[in-house]
C-alpha cells in the first residue's frame, strides 16, 4: 500500500510457538479473540492511510471516480493480496461492496472499504490449500499435490515472508511450477533477491530466540548495555546469519557455528563488548574478526545478542543457555519448570554473588537434587560452557566479585540413543562437538522444514525429511543448499489428504 515503515503486525498479540520456536497460528482459534480485533483495526488504519496519501499513487488507472477504475483496482490489488487466486465470485462481491459504499459516500470511501475487506478476508489472512482440481488422495502415497499458485505462495512465504511477485505468479499460471526442478529454478532466482535476506533473518530471529533482545534490560552495573547497543547486537546476529547463508562461497552449518568472524558496526566496536574488535565508520555492519585470545568467540552461539537473550538481568544463566542448545540445536524439548516442588514455590534465579560464590556453584545444586536433576542435567552441564560470558555477552575471566578463574567445562548428557555425548572445557569445545554432530545437523534440517511448513512435522513427513537431510549432507551441509532441498521435498510440494469428519491437524 506504499505506507513506508508501517508495521502493524509488531503490535499484534504473540502467535503460538511450534517446536523449533517458530511462530504459527496454524493451531490457534481466531474467531472471538483479540487478534481478530487487531486484524480489523490494522486493516482499517492501513486502508484509511492508503487513501489519504493519494489515490493517484494507489490506483492502477487514472483516478476517475467511476466503476471501471474500481473494477481495475480490485483486479490488481485483490489478486496480489490473494496470491494470484482471485476468483470471479470474490471479485464480484468486492465490486458490489465498492458500489454500496461509494453510492452512500464517495469514490475514495468505496476504495477504502474494498481495501479493508481484502485485508480482513480469510483469503488474505490464511493460507488456503485446496490442492489441484481432481487430485486423488491416493496419489503420492495419500498426499494431495498443490496447485501451481499454492506452490507459489509457499515459495514466497518461505523465501520472502511476502506475497509472490508478478514473475512467480506468471510462472505458476503458465504451469511452470509442477516439477522440483522448476521450483528450484524459481527458488534460485528468489534467493538472489534482497527480499530473501529478511526471510532468512526472520528464521534466525526465532530459531536463536533473539526476537526480543531489543527490549532486554540489564542491571545498571553493566554500564555498557544500552538500548542502542542491544539493537546493534540484534542486527549483528541476524546479519551474520543471512550473510553466511547467502555467501558467494555457500556458507555451511559449520561456518555458522564456528566462524571467528561476525558483522559489527561502530556502536558495537565502541562498546568494547568484543574487546579489540572495532566497527567501521558510519552505520555499516562490516565482517570483522571478533575472536582473539582476550575475547574467545566461536560462531553465532557466542554472539552477544544470543548470550544476552539467554541470561538474567545481572548474571549469566547456564539453564537458559543450555536449554537453547538442547532445544534449538538438538531438537530435544525440555519440560517447563514446575511452579512449586513439594508445595514450595521455585525460588527466583540468583541475582548477585557473595564473596567466594560462583555462578557454577549456584547452579550445580540442581543436579544434586533428584527432584530437579532429571531436567537440569540436560541443560546446566551444557550451559556451563558459556560461563565465561556475562549477562551482556561480554567475555570475563572470573565471576563478578571473585578472583577465581571460571570453570567453563561441561558435558553432554545423552537423553536418548544416539544422542550427543562427551565433555568439553569451554564454549569452543562445546560448539566444535555440535558442529561435528549428526544430531545437530539433522536438527537444523528439521528446523528449516518446520519453518517452511509452518507446522509440526508428522510421520508422513519422515521420508521427505530423510531425503532433504541426505541432500544437505551431500552438499557439505551448505545452508543455501538445504533451502533448495526443502523446496524440492514432497513435504513442501504436497499436503496431507483430509477426509470428511477428520480433524484438520
Summarize the structure.
The chain is 48% helix and 6% strand.
Element layout with pairings:
Blueprint: E1 16-18, E2 22-24, H1 34-52, H2 55-58, H3 67-81, H4 88-104, H5 107-119, H6 122-125, E3 143-145, H7 148-159, H8 166-173, H9 180-191, H10 195-207, H11 227-246, H12 253-258, E4 261-264, H13 266-271, E5 286-289, H14 304-309, H15 318-329, E6 340-341, E7 344-345, H16 359-368, H17 370-383, E8 410-412, E9 422-424, H18 427-436, H19 438-453, H20 462-474, H21 479-488, H22 490-493, E10 494-496
Antiparallel strand pairs: 1-2, 3-10, 4-5, 6-7, 8-9
Helix pairs in contact: 1-5, 3-4, 3-5, 4-5, 7-8, 7-9, 10-11, 15-17, 16-17, 19-20, 19-21, 20-21
Defining key terms:
single chain, mainly alpha, two-stranded antiparallel sheet, 22 helices, 6% strand
Give a written overview of the molecule.
The protein has 505 residues and is mainly alpha-helical. Helices cover 48% and strands 6% of the residues. A two-stranded antiparallel ribbon has the order 1-2. A two-stranded antiparallel sheet has the order 3-10. The chain is globular.
Form type? globular
Rg (C-alpha, Å): 26 Å
Residue ranges: pLDDT <50 for 5 or more in a row? none
Q: First CA to last CA: what distance?
A: 34 Å
Tally of extended strands?
10
Biggest sheet details: 2 strands, antiparallel
Strand order of the largest sheet: 1-2
Total helices: the number is 22
Strand content: 5-15%
Mean pLDDT: 90
The proportion of residues forming helix, as a percent range, comes to 40-55%
Oligomer: single chain
Amino acid at each position: 500500500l506504499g505506507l513506508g515503515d508501517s508495521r502493524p503486525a509488531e503490535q499484534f498479540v504473540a502467535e503460538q510457538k511450534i517446536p523449533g520456536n517458530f511462530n504459527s497460528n496454524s493451531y490457534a482459534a481466531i474467531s472471538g479473540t483479540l487478534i481478530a480485533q487487531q486484524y480489523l483495526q490494522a486493516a482499517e488504519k492501513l486502508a484509511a492511510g492508503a487513501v489519504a496519501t493519494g489515490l493517484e499513487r494507489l490506483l492502477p488507472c487514472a483516478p476517475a471516480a467511476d466503476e471501471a477504475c474500481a473494477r481495475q483496482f480490485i483486479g490488481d490489488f485483490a489478486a496480489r493480496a490473494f496470491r494470484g487466486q482471485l476468483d470471479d465470485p470474490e471479485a464480484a462481491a468486492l465490486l458490489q461492496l465498492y458500489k454500496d459504499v461509494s453510492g452512500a459516500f464517495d469514490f475514495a470511501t468505496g476504495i477504502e472499504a474494498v481495501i479493508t475487506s481484502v485485508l480482513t478476508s480469510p483469503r488474505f489472512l490464511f493460507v488456503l490449500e485446496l490442492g489441484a482440481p481432481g487430485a486423488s488422495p491416493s496419489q503420492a502415497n495419500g498426499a494431495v499435490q498443490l496447485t501451481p499458485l499454492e506452490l507459489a505462495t509457499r515459495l514466497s512465504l518461505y523465501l520472502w515472508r511476502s506475497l509472490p511477485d508478478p514473475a512467480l505468479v506468471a510462472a505458476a499460471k503458465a504451469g511452470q511450477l509442477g516439477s522440483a526442478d522448476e521450483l528450484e529454478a524459481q527458488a534460485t532466482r528468489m534467493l538472489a533477491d534482497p527480499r530473501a535476506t529478511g526471510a532468512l533473518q526472520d528464521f534466525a530471529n526465532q530459531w536463536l530466540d533473539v526476537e526480543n533482545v531489543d527490549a532486554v534490560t540489564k542491571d545498571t552495573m553493566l554500564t555498557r548495555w544500552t538500548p542502542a547497543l542491544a539493537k546493534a547486537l540484534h542486527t549483528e546476529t541476524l546479519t551474520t546469519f543471512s550473510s553466511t547463508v547467502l555467501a558467494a562461497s555457500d556458507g555451511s552449518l559449520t561456518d555458522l557455528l564456528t566462524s571467528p568472524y561476525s558483522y559489527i558496526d561502530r556502536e558495537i566496536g565502541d562498546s568494547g563488548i568484543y574487546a579489540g574488535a572495532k566497527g567501521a565508520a558510519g552505520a555499516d555492519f562490516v565482517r570483522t574478526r571478533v575472536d582473539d585470545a582476550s575475547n574467545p568467540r566461536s560462531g553465532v552461539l557466542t554472539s552477544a545478542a544470543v548470550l544476552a537473550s539467554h541470561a538474567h538481568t545481572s548474571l549469566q544463566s547456564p539453564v537458559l543457555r543450555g536449554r537453547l542448545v538442547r532445544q534449538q540445536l538438538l531438537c530435544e524439548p525440555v519440560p517447563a519448570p514446575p511452579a512449586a516442588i513439594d508445595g514450595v514455590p521455585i525460588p527466583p534465579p540468583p541475582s548477585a554473588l557473595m564473596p567466594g560464590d560462583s555462578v557454577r556453584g549456584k547452579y550445580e545444586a540442581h543436579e544434586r537434587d533428584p527432584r530437579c536433576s532429571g531436567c537440569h542435567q540436560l541443560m546446566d552441564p551444557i550451559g556451563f560452557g558459556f560461563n565465561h560470558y556475562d549477562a551482556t555477552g561480554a567475555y570475563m575471566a572470573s565471576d563478578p566479585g571473585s578472583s577465581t578463574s571460571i570453570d567453563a567445562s561441561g558435558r553432554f548428557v545423552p537423553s536418548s540413543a544416539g544422542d550427543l555425548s562427551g565433555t568439553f572445557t569451554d564454549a569452543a569445545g562445546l560448539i566444535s562437538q555440535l558442529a561435528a554432530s549428526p544430531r545437530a545437523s539433522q536438527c537444523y534440517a528439521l528446523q528449516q522444514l518446520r519453518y517452511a511448513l509452518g507446522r509440526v512435522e508428522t510421520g508422513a513427513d519422515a521420508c521427505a525429511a530423510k531425503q532433504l537431510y541426505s541432500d544437505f549432507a551431500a552438499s557439505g551441509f551448505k545452508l543455501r543448499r538445504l533451502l533448495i532441498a526443502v523446496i524440492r521435498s514432497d513435504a513442501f510440494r504436497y499436503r496431507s489428504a483430509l477426509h470428511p469428519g477428520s480433524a484438520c491437524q
